[in-house]
Specification:
single chain; alpha+beta; five-stranded mixed beta sheet
Length: 194
């Protein structure tokens, strides 16, 4: 399979999850501005949405969107899936929250906006992170074991550092715990971010 990614973008969450799951994959870097792969292919022809992540399965199917890709990864590698009653639904719930309530707030911070809009986005991110804070007290979002949702939260927290969102406790320790994981180190290295 092939993961189409852009260094440090939200596709990094899928990259980390694939490495944690031990699922063999190739990487193809995408220039999101030019909509072109590192090999010169027109990315619009690969993913008509024009953005990453995109995961080309060996069957020829293309998966897009973090929630879908990470749900699929968890279905293929139970070691990175949450455990317990309603685990799959709670994972989708958490991935969706990270995607819609956290991830989307970064648009104004990355792509420009008024100072007022940026301040509002930072406040929203801080408030929305506070709702996840109690969940990482035991190590990770679903207790003492890593899940695909942690890959996405780590990616979002890495953006916080870039755009001046201060991380309140317990997120600095959580970030360090995630950054120390072999799969995270490998993913950062493979994306040229280490």
């Amino acid at each position: 399979m092939i993961l189409y990614y852009s260094p440090g973008a939200c596709s990094m969450a899928d990259h980390i999850a694939l490495n944690e799951a031990g699922l063999a994959h190739d990487l193809v870097k995408v220039d999101l501005r030019a909509k072109q792969t590192a090999g010169g292919d027109d990315f619009w022809q690969i993913n008509p949405k024009g953005y990453v992540p995109a995961l080309a399965l060996d069957s020829g199917e293309l998966l897009t969107e973090n929630v879908a890709i990470m749900t699929w990864i968890a279905s293929q590698a139970p070691g990175v899936a949450a455990k317990g009653e309603l685990a799959q639904i709670r994972t989708i719930e958490t991935l969706t929250y990270i995607s819609t309530e956290l991830h989307k707030q970064f648009g104004v911070l990355f792509q420009g906006g008024t100072d007022e809009a940026k301040a509002t986005a930072r406040e929203r991110i801080t408030k929305r992170l506070s709702l996840l804070a109690p969940r990482v007290q035991d190590g990770y979002l679903f207790g003492p074991e890593f899940t695909v949702a942690d890959a996405y939260l780590f990616t979002v927290l890495s953006w916080c550092k870039k755009v001046g969102v201060d991380l309140a406790d317990p997120f600095p320790a959580y970030y360090d715990r995630m950054a120390a994981r072999d799969a995270v180190k490998r993913s950062l290295q493979e994306e040229g971010l280490a």
